Amino acid sequence: MSEQQQPSTSRLATPVSDRIDTTRPHSARVYDWFLGGKDNYPVDEELGNQIAALSPDTKRIARHNRWFMHRVMRWLAGEAGIRQFLDIGSGIPTEPNLHQIVQGLAPDARVVYVDNDPIVLAHAEALLRGTPEGATAYVDADVREPEKILELAADVIDFGRPVALSLIALLHFVGDGGGEGENEGAYELVERLVARLPAGSCLVLSQLTSDFDPENVEKGVASYAAGGVTLVPRSLRRFSRFFDGLEVVEPGVVQVADWHPELNLGELPVQTQPVPIYGGVARKL
Length: 285
Description:
Layout: H1 16-19, H2 27-34, H3 42-54, H4 58-77, E1 84-88, H5 98-105, E2 110-115, H6 118-122, H7 124-127, E3 135-140, H8 146-153, E4 164-167, H9 186-195, E5 202-208, H10 214-226, H11 236-240, E6 247-248, E7 254-255, E8 277-283
Parallel strand pairs: 1-2, 1-4, 2-3, 4-5
Antiparallel strand pairs: 5-8, 6-8, 7-8
Helix pairs in contact: 2-3, 3-10, 4-5
């Protein structure tokens, strides 16, 4: 890949506005509502309110997941020295976004965002405003299309050099599967993506769990299901399985609020209650 190559976005034959389904909630838009964003629709707000009624802590939990991403990216671009980032399930831009964090520390960092929600694509221009020294790009694809993601990301990312692959709060929307092709589950998809990464790369994951509050989480699962959205909480053991064959970095697989809180920049409050999202970072040797 030439350093002179410019990042590009995927092009769609159908206008973005015509592809946005406002009759069913979408996970990216519900998450945007949890974070206090404005890029969601009444159907997303309705589901968000249903879930918040079951668990008043939902918005706090969403913020902790976002702060986890901030701290991980500071560590990756800083101590770990990673300069290439592939973020699948990027969601609707909420500042500071991933590229702003890593390019603030390493202006030459190269970032590829991946999502399949048309409203996220509509915001791709904001996602692509990176540093002149680095590169940012957007790929319109689903996590269930790993070959497409890797092929298009290769326009910007050199897969001969270490890459940080992040799937933040995404895999709990993918079932365990167990088949091939469209029936592949979360474990198989992660394995296929990691297989393409060279040694020195890192895998970043966060995942909802019912380990701490099973009753309310199961009610949330039912609310998502009623809205047509799959939600699969995983135990610590099942979540840790994603890192099989990799070297998990300290402090290991923990609640997201407990992952290097010393790296926060004022956004992380003292915790008195569990945050039911596990997070972790692992290195490919």
